[in-house]
Amino acid sequence: MGCSTHGFRVFAHFNWSRFAGTVQAIMEPVCASIGIIAWNEEDSLAAMLESLFGQTLFGELGRRGLRAEVVCVANGCTDGTARVAERVFEAQADRHLWREWFCCRVASLAERGKLNAWNQFVHALSAREARYLLLMDADIVIHREETLWTMLSVLEEDAQASVAVDRPCKHLRFKARKSIREQMSLAASDMTSAAPAQLCAQLYCIRAEVARNIYLPKDLAACEDGFIKALVCTDFLEHEVWPRRIRLAEGAEHTFEAYTTLGSIARNQKRQILGQTMVHLLIDLNLKALSPGERARLAEILQRRDMEDPWWLKRLVAAHLRRSRFFWRLYPGLLRHRFDRLLKVTGWKRVACAPVAVVGFALALVSGFLAWRALKRGATDYWPRENRLGLAGRESLPASAPSTPDRLPANRAKDNLCTAPYPKRSAG
User: Fold this and answer.
1) What pTM value is reported for the model?
2) How far apart are CA 26 and CA 4, in angstroms?
3) 82 and which of 27, 74, 282, 283 could share a cystine (Cβ 3.0–4.6 Å)?
4) Strands, sheet with 102-109, edge to edge from the N-terminal-most edge strand
């Protein structure tokens, strides 16, 4: 199903009585734009899309006369990712219960990179009238069918929140028998979730007006979620961090495949340390020098920097390395943050998580040194491709929602969802 209003009008002119409802739906403005960031995910994308189209979001919007769009942003793919997406989209356009109220398309980008794909979706590919943008990775499974609707509803109901997140669940959590290593991996997740305002880049819903004032610099190696979180929770560096800008949608969850070997964990940690170093430089040292007027158009400022001076961020990194001679000084708390998180865990879980903090400290020593050495060489583009099994065939996962949901709440009167003006937001 395409998103072209003009093209559909031409077709419907010859069979108006059959397609009148569809034409009316197509002409309605888009309320929510869903962006799926995919890089060589032909093996996992079909399962992810099946769980996506099983979401009650499409029915809830359709009952209110509101539309959604789904854009698969295939960036630099060398496999059949785009073909898989197109095949699933065509099938859903034929059989989905609420097919009149959404449209789908694939956007194939020549340049590889999640940051570029994010920028393209937010600033060029998503519908300009969309009030909410849902960003998600292509290798997850949304195992609760109300997840997306619950996340969107949080932003609709809470004027203080700019981002709604769900609870990310490692696939290990659904295994009946867990090894010691798997139990430690889950304990590490418990430590992370103990901190407030956690933003997982795998899946979140953000107000479009907020997202469109963010541009991800091309050399930001990783931790785009940390960069976005810092800007969102400070209202673009106007004040200290306000965790309430990010709200957890209770009952909303997705599943992802966890790293399970020490090698894969260390490589992921190296990438995270590279990204966190740059987030520190940007948020704590560089962007705060901008005037309030410049921060109000931050996306424009950052995009212009990338275009006019492609090496600007790498020069900031080089200058930082000259000031900070040792790898543990790449950013504050590089070695201690696991112990800081441990203190936020209460009860018996603190005892269970203590060995994880110690192992994490040891990994940070190794990964921090490797990241520091990479930055000394001027390398920032580091995205190791791990040989993982994928979620599609795992028996331990919960069943995902059906692709044509029919268990929807009773019909409700059309309200002002996605059409009313934003309420004024304050610190209170």
Assistant:
1) 0.84
2) 8
3) 74
4) 102-109, 67-75, 30-38, 132-137, 203-207, 163-170, 246-256
